[in-house]
Amino acid sequence: MPRTLCSLVRTIRPALPRAGFLLLACLALTGCETPAVTGETNPVPPIQSSTAQLRAGDSITIALLGVPDASTNTLQIEEQGQIRLPYIGAVPVAGLTAAELSQRIRQTYIERKIYTALDVSVAVTERYVYVGGEVVHPGRIIWSSDLTVTKAIQAAGGFTLYAKETKVALVRERITYEISVPIAQRQPAQDPQLAPGDSLQVPRSPF
Question: Which of 24, 69, 82, 155 has the fewest beta carbons closer than 10 A?
Fold first, then answer.
């Protein structure tokens, strides 16, 4: 509220009854405060080619071939972004492609003189997104390239009666984006595609 209104309240205070002054003072104080700055919700960035990169939660199959004790290991990438393999232990894998991981594993075995030569095959078996909060079946949803926010909610059984459908939180790489599912259902352009490892959290409505 302009400074002139704040001055006016001080000027007319003696002439006002107490109740009238208190009401006008509340209005003036509200207006005299610096208005809060509210920014728009960050738009969800489009999925880049980084979806080819491995990340925590991915399930992968690693085959060690061409060695006397050839083996196939099905593993899930740990939250720390690593896996564990025979003889070499923890291997950092988050951010690598399957081809890059294959080369890293091969080099590690050879550099540590465990094998002199071997072939390594890496295949991604399953990738997930996570849906929690006020949905019928919270938990992991298998990721596919066409999975969107509304499809993930449907795959989790839909909203409960208490869901706040306009304030769904999409968390990607520690950044949170707010999604209104009713708008996304009416406007497909507002229904962002999900990347492996994304998390959706549906809050509870206070009403």
Answer: 69
